[in-house]
Amino acid sequence: MASRPTIAFLSDFGTRDHYAGVMKGVVLSICPDAVLVDVSHDLPAHDIPFAARELAATYKYFPPGTIFLVVVDPGVGSARRGIAADVGDWRFVAPDNGVLTGVFQDTPPKKVVELTERRYARPTVSRTFEGRDRFAPAAAWLAKGIQLPALGRVISDYVQVDLVQPVIDDAGIRGQVVRVDRFGNVVTNISRRVCEKLGGADGALQIEIGGRDVSRVVSTFSEIAVGEIGALFGSTDHLEFAAQAASAADVMGVSVGAPVSVFRR
């Protein structure tokens, strides 16, 4: 028996309002067999770079054939385009505002199309809710079996945003905090691979965040003593800071954008 198509849904809608739910309803009206997976609806509102990083950290864990429906869209109703993309073993439907940047940097797209074919949208498209009227139908029709080119014309000038990368020079690595999760763990844009360019990713590193030395590199949260801040490479293999059963962000008084430096001892 053929497997049911999976649509993974990522947005900044939250769960208080009806927006995410009604988009699921549109999908199921077109493709009742679809399996809908909520990746998250609690992304920071309007934060395209944040959403791009979250999506890039997510998509490869889904089975081949998954369709990602991504709506973080501060430009809704403007001249910005809607797009669908074929990337590796996955497909994506999103506004053309750079939200797919992290995915495209990780795996260059095979094909990107603009959503111009009106028969694969709802009859009336609201200028304040294109997620419901354009993006959800496009994802549903892909799940139903149409091919990407049916949705519109192929483009190559899709939008990408600047995802701030760490600076590497003879002095070391300078990066920044890009995320604080719900546990207060402080995640940076410095990967293990980048740290290894200094000759290691272990206790031989001197690490500073917001002017504070946090040079104890551990492997797990349980190695961090109560009252201590530890550095580790988390589930996305990026440098992060954690406290034992506490918010490292609150303890250190740091937030997104705080500077992080890594030096070789």
Strand and helix map with partners:
Blueprint: E1 6-11, H1 19-30, E2 35-40, H2 48-56, E3 67-71, E4 82-87, E5 90-95, H3 101-106, E6 111-114, H4 130-144, E7 167-169, E8 172-180, E9 186-191, H5 192-196, E10 205-209, E11 212-213, E12 229-233, E13 238-243, H6 248-252, E14 259-264
Parallel strand pairs: 1-2, 1-3, 3-5
Antiparallel strand pairs: 4-5, 4-6, 7-8, 8-9, 8-14, 9-13, 10-11, 10-14, 12-13
Overall tally of domains: 2
Shape-level CATH architecture of the largest domain? 3-Layer(aba) Sandwich
| The CATH class of the largest domain | Alpha Beta
**Biggest sheet record:** 8 strands, antiparallel
The gross shape turns out to be elongated
- Estimated radius of gyration: 20 Å
CATH topology of the largest domain: Rossmann fold
Query: For this structure, what is the CATH homologous superfamily of the largest domain?
Result: S-adenosyl-l-methionine hydroxide adenosyltransferase, N-terminal
Number of strands: 14
Q: Which secondary-structure class do the elements indicate? A: alpha+beta
User: Runs with pLDDT <50, length 5+?
Assistant: none
Descriptive report:
Helix content is 20%, strand content 28%. The protein is of the alpha+beta class and 265 residues long. It folds into two domains: 6-151, Rossmann fold, CATH 3.40.50.10790; 167-264, Bacterial fluorinating enzyme like (Elongation Factor Tu (Ef-tu), domain 3), CATH 2.40.30. Strands 7, 8, 9, 10, 11, 12, 13 and 14 form an eight-stranded antiparallel sheet that branches. A hairpin with a 5-residue loop joins strand 8 (172-180) and strand 9. The radius of gyration is 20 Å and the shape is elongated. The termini are far apart. The model has no long low-confidence stretch (mean pLDDT 95).
